[in-house]
Design brief:
The chain has 144 residues and is α+β, with helices and mostly antiparallel strands. The chain is built from four helices and nine strands, in the order E-H-E-E-E-H-E-H-E-E-E-E-H.
Length: 144
């Protein structure tokens, strides 16, 4: 079985956040969703767990920060094409997100933009042309 990542995000309004992530990220896995949490399947190995503040506090005794005022983590997803970067951001804006809260990066071989979800969590979407990097070959060793 492949290693999975579950990104746990505290959200103020579970219904609003669920609708946003279904529009942007992917379908909800109802097996891991209830009135306190929604599991959004971004890919076979990436799942976003949207948790009410009460549910999130069951996993961490630390205070929940306001993602619009502080940053604790930067989330970045890769895409297959440069056009996919823009498509992700466009979907996020159409679903009520904010486009480009961080500067767009355009280095020719690498292109990235970002969006902000309803709670202020920032997601970066990036494309990189591995052929432009001499000697780059993604293997288990390069990602381990």
């Amino acid at each position: 079985m492949s290693q999975l990542i579950f990104i746990n995000l505290p959200v103020r309004d579970l219904a609003t956040s669920t609708a946003f992530y279904e529009a942007v990220g992917g379908p909800r896995n109802r097996q891991f969703s209830d009135e306190t949490a929604s599991c959004i399947v971004v890919s076979d190995v990436i799942h976003v767990m949207l948790l009410t503040h009460e549910k999130f506090m069951q996993f961490s005794p630390r205070p929940i920060s306001d993602a619009r005022k502080t940053a604790q983590v930067l989330l970045c997803l890769s895409t297959e094409t440069r056009g996919d970067v823009d498509a992700w951001v466009e979907k996020a804006v159409a679903a009520g997100g904010v486009a480009d809260p961080t500067p767009t990066q355009n280095h020719g071989f690498m292109y990235g933009r970002s969006f902000e979800d309803p709670d202020g969590h920032i997601w970066e979407i990036a494309w990189m042309d591995p052929a432009a990097l001499p000697g780059f070959q993604q293997t288990a060793e390069t990602v381990a």
